[in-house]
TrEMBL record:
<dbReference type="GO" id="GO:0071949">
    <property type="term" value="F:FAD binding"/>
</dbReference>
<dbReference type="InterPro" id="IPR016167">
    <property type="entry name" value="FAD-bd_PCMH_sub1"/>
</dbReference>
<dbReference type="Pfam" id="PF01565">
    <property type="entry name" value="FAD_binding_4"/>
</dbReference>
<dbReference type="InterPro" id="IPR036318">
    <property type="entry name" value="FAD-bd_PCMH-like_sf"/>
</dbReference>
<dbReference type="InterPro" id="IPR016169">
    <property type="entry name" value="FAD-bd_PCMH_sub2"/>
</dbReference>
<dbReference type="InterPro" id="IPR016166">
    <property type="entry name" value="FAD-bd_PCMH"/>
</dbReference>
<protein>
    <submittedName>
        <fullName>Tetrahydrocannabinolic acid synthase</fullName>
    </submittedName>
</protein>
<dbReference type="InterPro" id="IPR006094">
    <property type="entry name" value="Oxid_FAD_bind_N"/>
</dbReference>
<feature type="domain" description="FAD-binding PCMH-type">
    <location>
        <begin position="42"/>
        <end position="163"/>
    </location>
</feature>
Amino acid sequence: MVFLNVSSNYSSISSLVYTPINSSYQSVLDFSIRNLRFMSDSTPKPLVIITPEYEHQIPPIIYCAKQNQLQIRTRSGGHDFEGLSYVSEVPFVIIDLLNLSEVKVDVKKKTAWLGAGATLGMLYYNIAIRSPRLAFAGGFSPTVGVGGHFSGEAGAYCSENTA
């Protein structure tokens, strides 16, 4: 597999790549799985899990996966109860966006900018520490990844409690 040869700086991404021979592969895979059916030995596993730290690391991952005819599954930092982000019937890789989890809240504009790896809990927490009056009604589970919840990197409008 010529998976990382496209990257101009192999060492910059090698610590972000997990294969079944890595001791931490299983814990990285299992990190956000909440539906135990996807933890069984019979569930197909990814050939590689990549946890990019920067957006510019993603295009070479996609290129390499396509070159190797691997399906790409994206995990956005939170749980996926249906398992769509970590199972496939064909050989696949997971791009885990957990490290892209920045949350920026602008209290004056009543907006928040979220990295695709952030969770609803991270959003709620960051709003709460910046303002006792702002809130965001986005869901009830703090472990849901906003990347999947809002379909990619998202902006969120905060509502104000006027009571």
